[in-house]
Each structure stands twice: as C-alpha cells, then as structure tokens.
C-alpha cells in the first residue's frame, strides 16, 4: 500500500515538474542577445586587469623608457607585476626567456654548387616573461615556427647554424631544462594514439611524468581539473580517434585541446605552441586561446604562433611579436601595437581587426616589381624603427627587472650573471603547495615499461581492423593452400608440390609480417618522437614493451600452421609439426623485425617502398630460384641475412630429412627416391634444422637491436639542443661567476 502511495506521489511530482518546465516561456530575442553580449564580454575580457600589469594602462610612458614621474619604467613595471602576482596567488612562477642577436641560417639548394645560405631569423632580440601570453605573428614563411623552435630548444643541430644567445631565467640553456617538465612544446600536428580515451591518455602521461611520490588519487584529481579547464569534460571517455578516419573520435577543436592537455599534465612553467588554432572555426579557436590565456594568468609563460586571429582572440594576448622575412618588426604590448604603427603613419582603419591590419602591413607583396620594392621598403622601415626604439632590448630589460623583483637575483638585463634563479624559485615556492607538489622524478624504467605495455595492449585490443584483417588474410591463404595442395601424395608430383607449398608459405609469412610492421611502426614513430622529446620515457622501455606486446599477434599463425599442415599432409609426427611451427614463428619475428628496422631508419615513404623490394631480393636468394651453390662468391653473404633462406632450408630439412621415401613410376626420366636426394638437389644436404632456427632467431634479435639503435639515434639527433657558442661562453662565465661568488662567501665567512 505504502509503495503504491509513494509511487503515485512521485508520479504527480514528475507531472508537475514537466508542466512547470513547459509553462516557462522561451526567452525573447532581446533577452537572448543580452545574455550572449554578457557571455561574449566575459569571454573576451582579460583575466588579469590590464591596469595591474607592468607597463600597461594608467601610467604613460615617455619615449626614453621612463615613467613621467621619473621612475625607471622597467623597475616600476616589475614591481607592479610582482604585486599583482602576490595578490592573485598565482600557482606558477613561469620562466623568463630572453634572446639577443639571434640569427638562424640554413642552407638551401639541391646540390653543393647551388647551395646558398638563407637567414631564417636575422639578429632578433626580445623576451617572453612569466604570466604573459605572447602571440608570435607574421605572414607565412616569415620565420615564426623557426623562432618558436629556437626558443623551445627544438632546432636540430644538423638543420642550420644558430648564433646569438638564448637565456632561460638569465642562465644559459641546457638539455635538462627542455627535457624536464618545466618546458612544454605543443606541435601543430596532433600526434595521439587513436584508440585511447581522453582520460586514459591524460592519466598515462600523469603516471609517466608526475613524481612517483604523488599519490594516484592526486594525479587523478589533477587530470580531472585539467579536463575541466580545457573544456573536455563531455568527451573525457570518448576515444581520441583519427581526423576524418576510423575510429571516429574527437572533433578538431577537442583534439587540439587534448593535444595541449597532454603537455599540460606535467604542469609546465613555460608552454610553446605552434599554431594551436589552425584548422579550427573561429569559435573553437577562441575556446582554445581562452584556455591558453588562463594558463598564462596562473603564472606560466605562454608563447604561441598564430595566423590571423579574429579581433576577440587578438584581444586575449598580452604581448605581440611581429616578424616578417626573418626580421623583428614589433615586440611589446599587444594593446599598444596599433598606436605604435599609427605613430609611424600606418593607421589601422576603423572597424578593422588589428590582426588583419598587421598582416597587411607586414606581408611582402610580390605581384609586381614596384609592389615588391614598396613592401620591402616598408618592412625595412619597421625593422629599423624596432631596432632604433630598442623594443627588443626593452623587453629583455623588463624581463630582467621582473626577474630581479621576483627572485632577487640582481639580474637586470636578462641575465648572464650566473643567476641562481631556480634555487630562488624553489625557495620562493616553499609557500606554494602546487609548485612543491611537482618536484621529484617521474616513473622509473619498470613503471614506464608496464605503463607502455598496457597502452600497447589496449590499443591492439581496440583496433578491430588490426586484429581481424591479419586473421582473415591468414584464413584466406590457408584455404587457398588447402584447396591447391590438398592431400599431397608421396610420388614425384607430390615432391614438387611440397617444395612449392613450403616456399609459398615462407613468402606469405615474410610479406604478411613485414609490411604491417612497417605501417604500424611508421605511424607510431612520430608519436613516440613527440612523447620522448618531452622526456616522458626512455626509448628502451618503449621498444621492449612494444616487442612483447606484439607477440600475441603471432597466435593466428598457429591456427594457420595447424590447418595447412594437416590438410596438405606434411610429414607425420608431432615433433615435425612443432618444428614447422617454430620455423614459421621465427621467420615471422625476423620479417617483423625487418619491417620495424625499415620504419625506424627511413622516412615513411622510403620504408614502404623498400620493404617489399628487400623481401623480393631475399626471395631470390631463398634457395628455390637460385641454387645456393650457384650464388656468386661476392653475394654469398646475403644468405646469412636472408630469413627466407633460413626458413625455407629449415622447412625442407624438416620435411625431407632422414630416410623419407618417395615413389617412382616406371619410365620416369629422373626420380628422387628419398629425402636426401631432394635436399641434395637444393644443396640443403648439410642443413641442420636446429642451427637454422637458432640463426634465424639470432638474426631477428640483431635486426631488432639495429632498429632500436636507429630509432634512438634518430630521436636523439632531433632532440639534441642547438646551443650557440655565445650561450656556451655565457654558461662558462656563469659557472666562473658562481665559483667566484662561492669563494667570496667562503672568504666572508
Ligand atoms: N631547415 C630548413 N631548411 C631550409 N629552409 C628552412 C628550414 N627551416 C626554415 N626554413 C625556411 O625558412 C622560412 C621560415 O620558415 P618557418 O617555418 O619558420 O615560417 P613560418 O612563419 O612558421 O611559416 P608558416 O606560417 O607558413 O608556418 C621558410 O621559407 C622555410 O622554408
């Protein structure tokens, strides 16, 4: 009875609620517009009031770089910034990056004679400061990505020559700071594993990169808050997917934010992003940029390249860095850029997006000679004025002054005195739980191995195509072979068919193992490169976990072997069957290793072309098209690296070795009466199955090792920091200064 009454009450309440919902009239057009206007204003408003930022609003600066009240501009700006930071209890200290006379030269041209030098960056000076959101803008090919890469330590040594200096917190850079969690770089392409969900991806990176001392609950809490911060809550359990492919997953904007999130998991102090909004509609772009602005507002240094942002997005930047043809044209407050160019007589027309205006005046017009000359003159004027007014130098000084105010290192001018910033940073951060929480090493080798293995297995399990296609191919081959070679007899025809079938099996295993390995590994190489360049894990942990995770893929081969062996009617006896299986497994491993080696050592296109070509060559030396004894002396060594030869000779010895008898029909011109004669025909009479299987396994390990070496070496060459001589000298001087300071302290004591 009671239950009935309760149910009735619930029913009445639900009905009332529905009626109430229905009764609320929809908002009017004016109401909707008012709400939107409010939202829009909130979204585009800067999170830190402009007047509280150093050098902005309120106080006017005169041309000489001092305030009207006579106080040094840089010092005043730095003190204001410090006050704001203390008031806002920012959770990060950021990193200041200064660069002086930075020049990056590359060689262009096809051959040595035609090669010429090109200055991609020409004598640039500037700085990026903590809590600042810096937009790096310029026409296409102006050098934005190159500058971003130089600052974030991503210019490979072999690519070009870097001169000038880049200082991080006033100190010469080193590999450690770039591969640590302090500096993050978000590439333009989203290199992600498609079958993992957003949550799984973030958690994996949190487990890999955050300190072991942090509890798993804390890591989960952090990831959850990051997901909220990046607006990914609705898709946290969705697979990341492939853009426009299978599996379908996140939208373009969500992928971009997930891509940023992976780097944010490590909670870096400085974040560099290459075109974070490319390919997004303007609303999605605004969401991404707003998320980045928030990150800067928490104290981090955020620098990103961007193409023609809409005006509401442009408003979100604190600093603007305009470059064209490798020259710096403006560096300073983004809000003051329009005024700056107006003073140079370049007025931004009314109702025009300032970003569009900057693109127009900084682009090179090559439509005619006159237009090209005019634009060249204009760009030269901007570059000269930027130098004359010492905009870059001002930025460096401001960064130095901020550093001194924040960390008291007396390092005005952007450093070079061997500052102890990081130590001061730690000291100052003692009252800041978030900063302290993040100290300590990430996962150790065994944890990395386990986490990466888990990821590989999950990826494999969810990759339906990857699981079923090889099985279907194996089944089709098994059926074809069973139909063509069913119940082979012991006559001479049977001998020929057996040989043919064995060789075909070897070819099938070689192709179906090597080619998928090239495909899979070539796709993964870029993702691994990205993750390794952020210092997420070691190459060996990845490689070994991948090797082991791939082993279950050999299982379908067992079914293939069982089916073919029985239907064809190969030699009877369990030991012969299991030897057959071991030979096939070893060959599959060696062919897979060859595929990985190709993908690791060559660009994707070359690996895909050379993979099948190399198998064709191995087929030639496999023992059937060319008798082993007929191979010319110079090419004899090939058989020692030919896994098809090892497999075929071992399979033949397994099938025909010992005293296997075959029948002859009267009148047959040539008859092979026993297995020994068959082996002699192919020059396999001395082949020992055990030796071939052992050699095959050893060959596989050797190729795997080479593949690992190429992968590691390739990534390390890419990751090696291109440090200009000036910086190295600075570093030596810094160390000298440090030694002198220590000596002074000792003497004073
Ligand atoms: N390693 C290199 N070898 C040859 N040329 C290079 C190299 N690196 C950069 N360049 C050239 O330097 C110029 C600037 O390249 P960069 O990628 O920095 O421009 P960008 O402003 O980022 O262009 P976009 O906006 O189109 O991405 C281009 O002309 C590019 O071809």
Automatic annotation (TrEMBL):
Name the major location: membrane
Q: Native species of this protein?
A: Bathycoccus prasinos
Q: One GO term of the cellular component aspect?
A: membrane
Domain ABC transporter per the UniProt entry, residue ranges: 106-350
Keywords attached to this Swiss-Prot or TrEMBL record, sorted alphabetically, are:
ATP-binding, Membrane, Nucleotide-binding, Transmembrane, Transmembrane helix, Transport
Where in or outside the cell it occurs: the entry states:
Membrane
Q: Where are the transmembrane segments?
A: 464-485, 497-522, 576-597, 604-626, 693-711
Q: Per its record, how is this protein called by name?
A: ATP-binding cassette sub-family G member 2
């Amino acid at each position: 009875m009671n239950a009935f009454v309760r149910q009735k009450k619930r029913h009445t309440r639900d009905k009332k609620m529905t009626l109430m919902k229905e009764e609320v009239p929809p908002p009017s057009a004016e109401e909707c517009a008012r709400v939107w206007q409010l939202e829009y204003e909130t979204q585009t408003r800067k999170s830190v009031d402009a007047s509280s930022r150093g050098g902005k609003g309120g106080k006017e600066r005169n041309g000489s770089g001092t305030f009207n009240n006579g106080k040094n501009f840089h010092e005043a700006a730095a003190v204001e910034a410090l006050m704001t930071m203390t008031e806002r209890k920012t959770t990060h200290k950021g990193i200041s990056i200064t660069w002086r006379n930075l020049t990056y030269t590359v060689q262009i041209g096809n051959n040595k004679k035609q090669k010429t030098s090109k200055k991609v960056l020409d004598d640039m000076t500037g700085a990026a400061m903590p809590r600042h959101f810096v937009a790096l803008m310029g026409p296409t090919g102006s050098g934005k990505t190159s500058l971003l890469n130089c600052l974030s330590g991503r210019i490979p040594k072999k690519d070009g020559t870097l001169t000038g200096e880049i200082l991080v917190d006033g100190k010469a850079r080193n590999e450690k700071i770039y591969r640590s969690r302090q500096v993050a770089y978000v590439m333009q392409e989203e290199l992600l594993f498609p079958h993992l969900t957003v949550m799984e991806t973030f958690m994996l990176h949190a487990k890999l990169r955050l300190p072991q001392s942090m509890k798993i609950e804390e890591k989960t809490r952090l990831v959850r808050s990051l997901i909220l911060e990046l607006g990914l809550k609705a898709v946290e359990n969705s697979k990341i997917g492939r853009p426009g492919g299978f599996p379908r997953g996140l939208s373009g904007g969500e992928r971009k934010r997930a891509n940023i999130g992976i780097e944010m998991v490590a909670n870096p102090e400085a974040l560099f992003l290459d075109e974070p909004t490319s390919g997004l509609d303007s609303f999605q772009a605004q969401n991404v940029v707003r998320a980045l602005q928030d990150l800067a507002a928490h104290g981090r240094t955020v620098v990103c390249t961007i193409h023609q942002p809409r005006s509401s997005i442009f408003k979100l930047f604190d600093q603007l860095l305009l470059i064209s043809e490798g020259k710096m044209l403006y560096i300073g407050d983004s809000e003051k850029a329009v005024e700056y160019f107006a003073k140079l007589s370049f007025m931004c027309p009314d109702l025009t997006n300032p970003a569009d205006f900057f693109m127009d005046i900084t682009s090179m017009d090559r439509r005619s000679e006159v237009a090209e000359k005019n634009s060249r003159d204009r760009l030269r004027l901007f570059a000269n004025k930027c130098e004359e007014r010492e905009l870059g130098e001002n930025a460096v000084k401001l960064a130095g002054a901020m550093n001194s105010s924040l960390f008291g290192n007396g390092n005005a001018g952007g450093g070079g005195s061997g500052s102890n910033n990081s130590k001061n940073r730690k000291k100052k951060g003692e009252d800041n739980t978030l900063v302290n929480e993040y100290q300590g090493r990430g996962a150790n080798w065994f944890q990395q191995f386990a986490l990466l293995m888990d990821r590989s297995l999950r990826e494999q399990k969810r990759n339906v195509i990857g699981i079923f296609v090889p099985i279907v191919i194996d089944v089709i081959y098994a059926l074809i072979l069973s139909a063509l070679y069913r119940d082979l007899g012991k006559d001479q025809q049977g001998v020929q068919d057996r040989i043919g079938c064995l060789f075909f099996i070897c070819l099938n295993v070689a192709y179906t193992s090597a080619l998928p390995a090239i495909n899979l590994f070539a796709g993964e190489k870029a993702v691994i490169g990205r993750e390794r360049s952020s210092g997420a894990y070691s190459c060996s942990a990845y490689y070994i976990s991948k090797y082991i995770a791939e082993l279950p893929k050999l299982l379908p081969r067992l079914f293939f072997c069982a089916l073919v062996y029985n239907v064809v009617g190969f030699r009877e006896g369990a030991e012969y069957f299991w030897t057959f299986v071991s030979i096939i497994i070893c060959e599959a491993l060696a062919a897979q290793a060859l595929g990985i080696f190709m993908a690791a050592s060559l660009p994707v296109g070359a690996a895909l072309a050379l993979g099948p070509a190399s198998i064709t060559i191995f087929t030639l030396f496999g023992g059937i098209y060319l008798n082993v004894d007929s191979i010319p002396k110079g090419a004899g060594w090939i058989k020692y690296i030919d896994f098809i030869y090892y497999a075929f000779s071992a399979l033949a010895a397994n099938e025909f070795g010992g005293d296997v008898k075959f029948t002859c029909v009267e009148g047959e011109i040539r008859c092979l009466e026993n297995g020994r004669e068959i082996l002699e025909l192919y020059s396999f009479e001395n082949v020992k199955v055990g030796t071939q299987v052992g050699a095959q396994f050893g060959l596989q390990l050797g190729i795997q090792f080479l593949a690992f070496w190429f992968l590691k070496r390739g990534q390390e060459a890419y990751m090696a920091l291109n440090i200009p001589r000036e910086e190295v000298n600075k570093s030596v001087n810094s160390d000298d200064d440090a030694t002198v300071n220590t000596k002074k302290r000792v003497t004073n004591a």
